[in-house]
Design brief:
77% helix
């Protein structure tokens, strides 16, 4: 994906997301990782260009974050409709985000460890990638916990637990499944793209 089109899509969704979000503080918290991703991509575009696959996946993750920031994860309209159709008690858009939180970092980590030749053994490489994604997911849950303690009642929209006592554990479970599926589904295609990077 050309960086120009990447930026147009990112900025378009960002502007839409920023217009009258459900809760401005929640929006800031949810969109901050996408903005950090944008800054890192711009900073490393020439010195460490990524594969088109990874650029596309990062953009998808940023869009997921910005949509969640605009509505809050518990109020995304499509998932409210799905909730009613499935007879569920909660809006599960946050699970899409946590699944992506495993899948996209898995490919990002894979790209870095392959290009930096960190491992000679594919099994250890895959094990490290999955462990890294779980650690990243757990770290994010700790950030959510810290925000909840600092902000008190205002953290409800950011946490998005919706009364589900196993929310933190299931979030990490979705990230685990995302990481494993990311490696299974994208490794071969990712390898083809990695061979084209000088």
């Amino acid at each position: 994906m050309k960086i120009f089109f990447w930026l147009i899509i990112f900025l378009s969704v960002f502007v839409w997301s920023a217009i009258a979000p459900f809760d401005r503080i929640t929006w800031l918290l949810e969109v901050a990782p996408a903005v950090i991703g944008l800054v890192l991509i711009i900073a490393t575009y020439k010195s460490f260009p990524l594969t088109p696959l990874l650029y596309s996946l990062i953009l998808i993750h940023c869009v997921i974050l910005m949509v969640g920031g605009h509505y809050t994860y518990a109020e995304v309209p499509l998932f409210n409709e799905l909730k009613e159709l499935m007879g569920s008690s909660r809006n599960n858009y946050d699970k899409v985000g946590h699944f992506a939180q495993g899948l996209i970092p898995a490919i990002l980590t894979r790209e870095i460890v392959i290009r930096k030749n960190v491992f000679n053994n594919i099994a250890w490489q895959s094990f490290f990638i999955v462990c890294f994604c779980l650690a990243f997911s757990a770290f994010y849950e700790l950030i959510e916990w810290g925000v909840a303690i600092i902000s008190g009642e205002g953290a409800h929209a950011f946490l998005g637990t919706q009364g589900y006592i196993w929310d933190t554990q299931s979030d990490m479970g979705y990230a685990l499944v995302g990481a494993i599926l990311g490696l299974i589904l994208f490794s071969r295609y990712h390898d083809q793209q990695l061979q084209k990077i000088p």
